[in-house]
Amino acid sequence: MLRSLRGVGRSLFRTGRSAVFSAYYAAVRINHRRELYAPRKRVGDAEFRSYELVNKHGRDLLLGRLLTNCAPGATVYDVGANTGTYTLAVAAARPDASVVAFEPNPDVREQLATNVRRNGFENVAVRGEGVGDRSGTRTFYRSTYDELGSFRRANAAGWEARVRDAVEVPVVTLDDVVASGEVPPPDHLKVDVEGFGGEVFDGARETLETHRPTVYFEPHGREEASAVASILDAAGYSIRTRPGAWVAE
């Protein structure tokens, strides 16, 4: 009987959380689209505005380390930028740095671009490609929780979310981006891609070997973590781990 009641309680909790999160993401989409309200956010010494309703990820350990390590004039790649907390914080804290933000979800990329425009940041390049192990196109699964969108269907349906739809998006490798000379190579590389990290780093082996960026990585699951650890280890990186946060140099 007690076990049954606990199961009912967990089910009700998940249902309630799903309703709250779904309502939040719906409100954020409207807020960005209509540019209604951009509250001020603070991350360390950085201050910026965004149409996110809360300071999501503003207290992330990885973001704090990135801001501490980012020297004047540095180039930061934000892979899986979402609506831009990392991008906006770096752009605000280091106006002489350059940020290259990759976000493959077309709707979320527009939200990111809107936030960059709202702040008048001229040191940010917003790119609509996904990042992977080969250049081309790939299916991206959009989630009812926008933050969970992924090239892996299972990750887009994490928590209580479900896959909203799927779109074909362009994909590049970081090695190809660097080799093209369009943007400088990264001094800092942040990756949060909902289970697709192995592919991101597999397509960045030359960049890791040659340019040695400091890596900030949020793992999602053992398979992704194992793949990324193997690539970083082969490239001679030392990894410091905390729950949900890796810094590798």
Quick rundown:
By secondary structure, the protein is α/β, with parallel strands linked by helices. The protein has 9 helices and 12 strands. It is globular and about 45 Å long.
Order of helices and strands: HEEHEHEHEEEHEHEHHEHEE
Spatial arrangement of strands, main beta sheet: 5-4-3-9-10-12-11
Say what the CATH topology is. Answer: Rossmann fold
Shape: globular
How many domains, in number, for the residues? 1
Q: How far apart are the first and last residues' alpha carbons, in Å?
A: 52 Å
Residues in helices, as a percent range: 40-55%
Tell me what portion of residues adopts beta-strand conformation: 15-25%
CATH class wording:
Alpha Beta
Low-confidence sequence ranges: 4-9
GO biological process, one term: methylation
GO molecular function, one term: methyltransferase activity
Protein name: Methyltransferase, FkbM family
Domain Methyltransferase FkbM: 78-238
Which secondary structure elements does this structure contain, and how are they paired or packed?
Elements: H1 2-34, E1 40-43, E2 46-49, H2 61-69, E3 75-79, H3 85-93, E4 98-102, H4 106-119, E5 124-127, E6 130-131, E7 136-143, H5 153-156, E8 163-172, H6 174-180, E9 188-191, H7 197-202, H8 205-211, E10 214-217, H9 222-234, E11 239-242, E12 245-248
Parallel strand pairs: 3-4, 3-9, 4-5, 6-8, 9-10
Antiparallel strand pairs: 1-2, 7-8, 10-12, 11-12
Domain Methyltransferase FkbM: 78-238
Protein name: Methyltransferase, FkbM family
Organism: Halopelagius inordinatus
